[in-house]
Specification:
By secondary structure, this protein is α/β, with parallel strands linked by helices. It has one domain (2-177): Glutaredoxin. The chain contains 6 helices and 9 strands. It has helices at 2-27, 70-81, 83-88, 101-111, 124-128, 166-177; strands spanning 40-42, 48-50, 58-63, 91-97, 116-119, 132-135, 138-141, 144-148, 154-158. The strands form 3 sheets. Strands 5-4-3-8-9 form a 5-stranded mixed sheet. A two-stranded antiparallel ribbon has the order 1-2. A two-stranded antiparallel sheet has the order 6-7. It is globular. The model is unreliable at 6-27 (pLDDT under 50).
Length: 179
């Protein structure tokens, strides 16, 4: 009886600790109106890409959990499908996950993706954007998106994104912000 009560209390404390960790990550998401944290990461081509490389353009900076998984494939396909519309709005789509360059190369080849996918296996950029999470014992990027204006200011933050309608939501918001 005493051991059972101790285990229950320990379980509750662990749950609270985990919940606190999630809240701490959520609290670190950069706010709308703040300058987007700059970074440099390798793309699927192995070239270094920095956020400041896109000055003068809108950037759809999206974080996603894992290459070649169903939700991530849907999200990437939708961004690719809408690429011409993003081009018309002077916007670059840039995806970031903790996967490797090799994984990104395979994903882009298999799914015919032409926009930049950046590899962040060290998690530092994902963490800067408050988008680091755990799933089934793996550290991954949370499905969050930041709409960054041509001056490098975050204009919209999307958290816990539904991959199906997301690209259209971003396009609608981008068109509104450009008015």
């Amino acid at each position: 009886m005493k051991m059972s009560r101790t285990m229950t209390i320990l379980g509750l404390l662990l749950s609270l600790a985990l919940l606190a960790g999630v809240v701490a990550w959520a609290a670190e998401v950069p706010a709308v109106g703040s300058t987007a944290p700059d970074f440099t990461l390798p793309s699927q081509e192995g070239k270094q890409v920095s956020l400041h490389d896109f000055k003068g353009k809108w950037v759809v900076l999206y974080f996603y959990p894992k290459d070649m998984t169903p939700g991530c494939t849907i999200e990437a396909h939708n961004f690719q499908r809408d690429q011409a519309q993003y081009d018309k709005l002077n916007a670059a789509v840039v995806g970031v996950s903790v996967d490797s360059i090799d994984s990104h190369q395979e994903f882009c080849t298999k799914e015919n993706l032409t926009f930049k996918l950046l590899a962040n296996p060290g998690h530092d950029v994902v963490e800067k954007y408050g988008s680091l999470t755990q799933m089934r014992g793996m550290t991954i990027a949370a499905r969050n998106t930041f709409l960054v204006d041509p001056k490098g200011v975050i204009r919209k933050v999307y958290t816990m994104v539904d991959p199906n309608p997301h690209s259209q939501q971003v396009l609608t918001e981008l068109a509104e912000l450009k008015k």
